[in-house]
Each structure stands twice: as structure tokens, then as C-alpha cells.
Amino acid sequence: MRTFAAPALLCAFGLVAALAAVLQFSLRAYVPGSLDPGGFTLANFTDLLKPLYARVFIDTVWICFLTAVSTLIVGYPLAYALVRSQNAILKSTLLVIVVTPLFLGEVVRTYSWIIVLGNNGFINSILLHLGIVRQPVQFMFTTFGVVVALVHVTMPVMVIMLAAALSHIDRDYQRAAESLGAGPVRVFLTVTLPLSMPGVVAGVTTAFAWTFSAFATPQLIGGGRVNMISNLVYQLGFASFNFPFAASLCVTGLALTIVVLSMLRLASRRLETIEPH
Amino acid sequence: MNKLADQDARTQGPAADQDGAVRFNAVTKRFGETTALDGVSMSIRQGEFMTLLGPSGCGKTTLLNLAAGFLSPDGGEILIGGERMNDVPTYKREIGMMFQNYALFPHMNVAGNVAYGLKVRGVAKQERDRRVEAVLGLVRLAGFEDRTPRQLSGGQQQRVALARALVINPTVLLLDEPFSALDKNLRASMQVELREIQRKLNVTTIFVTHDQSEALSLSDRLAVMSEGRIRQLGTPQQIYRQPCDRFVASFIGDANVLRGRLEGVEGASAIIAIGPVRVKVPCGPLADVARSAAVDLFVRPEHLALSEATEACATHGTIVAHVYQGGYVDTYIECGEASRDRLLVRSGGHEAMTRWPTGARVGISVTSGEAVAFV
User: Fold this and answer.
1) Alpha helix positions (H), chain B
2) A111-120, pLDDT tens digit by residue?
3) ipTM of the predicted structure?
4) How many domains does chain B have?
5) Pick from B116, B128, B168: which is nearest to A177 by CB?
6) Looking at the domain covering A38-274, what would its CATH class be?
């Protein structure tokens, strides 16, 4: 234990120091034209309540929510197939597809999505060619486009967490339910899904937290029209050089993440209680 | 017991009586290259307790899974209540199944577990509660409704599993080594209890085990299986007293193998010579064997007796050990002439121990006409 105490303390100290610096900055006044902050003030936080900024917070939570839920819906069948499939080739193909996003750089991945979603992109070309639409469908610079790309980012972690939970469910539970007369849908809803809840909660929580700090994806695909907290921080910090206000955004974002995650945790506790008959 | 079911109506159904409640017709199942079941046929009567017994890998669990519908056969057909089940999914088969690890739903309490099958069938809440209460009373777990599976002992979990399987009045009850996780004392009492409930409800039961004493004590009939085939099907007495081949004779109960010689056939009996002694055995398995051919005589330990070494006996040997078992004594004897392995002689009381100490030379005689012989 002792061997690890020193490096652990060093890391913890570094983290705390950085956070303290940000917190400190968030409480300082902005001096236009200067990189150095002024005196202590709470103005940065009251400014956050202005509709312009509050909107970004709401959008961010909404995008995170959409992303987490969509990833869950797409990821669950993948995780299930990954765990239960008897076909080795299918399994390894799935694993490769699912894990690849982890190894693509954020910019490369996002750029690929621009190629797919753009007005002259892959999807629109096909839709136009088949005559399904006359005008290209606007995917770029929309919440939809951003969520699609973010789902791709969070898919690996979601699938891995769901697969871990699903692989711990003894097959006999499902067989028992079947023997008692439950069809496939019922078995899934009453046995498999409830027993995989720990994985669902872990996956959704992680996807949510991960998306909350997304930057490159909303920046490139949202193109300024879909803004998340990180994009706002970037604009304020590096376009307006308003470091104190950017810091207050960071602090509030962090607080919001913690609040949302603890709410999820609370909800999962309620889910784990015994279902009455 | 009328609370629990219209079980009786089903019992007297004519179709079930004629065809057998469960039938396997030349059922074959392969897993890749290996043949797990090789043309197995069997008919199980309504209300019968049928045991599938055999070493691991003999196909008994595969057969049970085929009956449950977790696997589908590669050949032959499976009938439950006279209806072909090959393409009927598990959830439409009206079976009750008890799993080796009980598989109680951990996210539901006892009542929730037991009520599951009723809920699926759309039984109204009031009726459901009544039947759950009745079946929990039957397995002596009244008042445990609100416990979770984790709060129950192994034996209690097993009772819940049994209640859950029985509450739906299954056509057939399938038991997959349900006692293997219990300690010895609990196992014995649970066995008695299970059998009592099974008789009371008259539910057709298929029971899988590799424990031969369990099979002998519980079954109406049992099927001894090995390598994907049924070696012998019969009542426990038939199997124990008239095993049809070497495998069955040595798998069920303890058996001593003595080297002998076929001397002749007298009607339905064959005469086997062992040393100066002649032993009568059923001639069935020896029908095609030439006179004076070497045969192996299988004798149960309780059908051998010790005597003074000077007497004319089947064989002689040296006592290696006495094992006192309370009600009886197991005596192990080294005996080069007639048997490769040590002989086991089981005698009531402890007279044998006091009369012949370890190392003493004794004579061994066959005391009963229940021996069997195989080439």
C-alpha cells in the first residue's frame, strides 16, 4: 500500500490544484483587454442565467440524454448478440465493429461523419439517387447529426458494459422463465432486462458523462449551430479571452454532471429493489 | 389438494394412458461430430417417476433438454400428452422444470417467483394469490412470500423452485439433478418430500441424476444410459437384481466380479463353475456362449459370505480391512485366484470383524441365486 501512496498523492494533488485554479478563476472579475483577472465576484455565475448561456446548458443535457438513450437502444442488441451468439465469426465481426471507434482519432472519426452526413455526402447521395428525396436532407449542423456522431463515440463503452452485465446472467434464468410459459419478448422484459440493469445504468451513466464534455464532434458537425458546454467554453476562453467566465462554465458543467450522475445512481437504486408480485 | 389443480381430470385422460404421458421415438441428437443421443425410445406413463441415470456425458441431460425444448432433436420425435412436440417452443409445452442451481429469479421475492408462471398465463390476481399460498403450503414454506431468494437456505430455495414449477400444473415435471447442491442429510429429507408431493399430485416426472442410490430410492422406473443409448429400462429392483449387461451391473450398486466358467444350461438358468462351487444364473446374457467359456460372475456384496478357509468355497482370500458402517460391516478381501480386484463382502452385525481379524485367510461363498454372469 505504502509504495503507491506517494504517486497517488502526487496525482491527487495535481488534480486538486488544477480544479482549485479553475474554481479560483471562476470567482474573479473579467477585465476586458487583459488576460489577468480582476477582483473576486459572483457575477460570472449570475451571468450564466442569461437565456443565451442557460440555453447551452439545456441543449447539452438534452444532447447527452438523447445520445445515452440512443446508444443504449442500438448497443443492447449488439451486446446481446456478442454474448449469446454461438457463431464465432459473427462474434468477432461484431467486436471489431463495436471497438473500432475507440481506436479512431476524434477528428478522423468526426470528419468521416461529415462525409457521410453532408449535403453531398453518402446518405444524401443515395437518397437523391433513389429519388426518395428531391432536396438533400439537412443532417449537418443539426442536433440529429451531432447525436448520431456522438452515439458512435459512446458505443464501445456502452456495448462493453452491457456485455459484461449480460454475460453474468445465468442462462437458466431465461430457461426457467421459458419453461414457465413466457415467450421471448416476455422473457426479455421480465428477466433479461431487469437482471442486466446494473450494466444499463453503468453504460448510460458513462455515456452521459462522456458526452457531456464532448467538444470536437459538436464543434465540427454542429458547426456553431449546435453548441455544447465545451464549445461555449472554447469560444469564451479562446475567442473572447474571458477566462473567468469560461472557468465559471467549467465549474457549473462539472457540478451539473455530478448532479445528473447522482440522480441516475439514485434511480438505479430504486430499480434494484424487489419487484412485488 | 383440490386447491392445486384439476390434476385428476388429466390423470384419467384416455390418450395419456394409452400413449404414455411422455414419449421419445428414436430420438437422435448430435453436437457437431459427437452423437449425444443415438435413437433413444422410451415411453413414460402418466404419474410415473422416471429417472434417467448415467455417468456424465451419457446423454441424460440432453434428453431432458429435448423434453423441455431447449434443444431440438436431429431425428425422431418427442410426444408430450400424445402431441408431437418437436417444433413446439418451450413456452408452449406446459412443463415445469427444476434446475440444478434452482434458477430462482433474484430480482423477485418468493411470491413473485412462484406467481410468475400464473402471471404469464393471465391468471387473475386473487386466484394467483390463492394458488401461490396453496403451493407454498404444500412445500411447507407458508409465510415466506416476501423473502428474496438470497435470504433462503439451499433447501428452502429448492422448495421454492419446486413450488414455482408445480403451481402451473405442468403436464410433466422435469428435474435436472436438483439435489446435487444439498448436503447429505438435507438431501435425504428433500428426496422423501419431493417423492411425497409428486405422488400426491400424480405428476409425470422425469428426473436426471448421476447418483445411483438416489435413482434406486426415488424412481418408479429408471433408464440407465451410457454413450447416448439406454442400456436398460426397468424398475429399480429389476435393474439392481437383473442388470442386463456389464455396464449396468457395475454402474448400479456395488458389484464383485468373479472369474468363472460356463458349465451348462438348464432351462432358463446357466450353471457357472467357480472353483469347486456351481452357481445358477439367468441364462439370458449367455445364450450364445460356448460351453466352458470363461465368464465373469457379478455378485452383490450382500450376496457373498465369509466362512472358514478350510471349507470348500467359491474362492479364498485374505482380509485387507473391515469397515464398520454401523448397521453392517464392509469387508475388503484380496483374492488372487478368482478376481482381479478386491472383493467386497457386506455382512450384517459385527460378527465378521471379531471372528476374522485383518490378515486372516477366509473362504468366500455365494449365498444367493441373484448373481448374473456376462462374457
Assistant:
1) 7-11, 14-19, 60-68, 110-120, 125-138, 154-166, 184-201, 212-218, 236-241, 246-251, 351-355
2) 899 999 998 8
3) 0.82
4) 2
5) B116
6) mainly alpha
